[in-house]
Amino acid sequence: MNPQVMEKLKKQLEQELQEIEQQLEESERPQATELSNYDNHPADNASDLTDQLTEMAIDEHRGDDAEEIKAALQAMEDGTYGKCAVCGEEIPIGRLEAMPKALTCVEHAEHKEDNLRPVEEDVLSSTPKSDDFIELEEFGSSDTPQDKS
C-alpha cells in the first residue's frame, strides 16, 4: 500500500478516535426530571427512562466504534493493515477509503444486519404451521361464509 495513503488513513482514524473519545467524555447520563415520582404521570417517567436508555445505547455504539478504530490502528502498527484478517487478500483501497477501520474484505465482512430480526419471528408467522387452527375454528371465528369459499 502506498505510504501516503496509509498516512492519510491513519490520520483520519486518529481524528475519528479523538472525536469519539471526546464525545464519550462529555456525555452525561440524563437524570430524572422530577424529585419525586409520587405525583408524576407514568408517561413522564417513561420519557425519562427512554432518554436514559437512548443515551446509553449511543455511548455503547461509540465505544464499539472506538474499539474497531483501535484495532485498525494496531493493525497499522503490526503491518497487517490492508490485508483481510480472514483470507489474507488485499483489501481494495476504495473500501479502506470509505471505511478505514475495515479489517476484512467485503466477502468476509460481518453482516450484522442479518441478526437484527426479533427472535419472536421464529415462532410467530402469518400462516399456521399445523392443523391446530382448523380445530380452533370449530369454536367459532370471525369468518363469514364468503371467506370460507
From TrEMBL:
> Which residues fall in a compositionally biased region of kind Basic and acidic residues?
110-120
| Domain Zinc finger DksA/TraR C4-type residues, every copy | 79-107
Q: InterPro entries per the record?
A: DnaK_N (IPR037187), Znf_DskA_TraR (IPR000962)
Which keywords does UniProt give here? Metal-binding, Zinc, Zinc-finger
Q: Where are the zinc fingers (dksA C4-type)?
A: 84-108
Q: Region Disordered: which residues?
A: 20-54, 110-149
> Can you tell which superkingdom this protein's organism belongs to?
Bacteria
- Tell me what this protein is called: TraR/DksA C4-type zinc finger protein
Q: Which organism is it from?
A: Lysinibacillus zambalensis
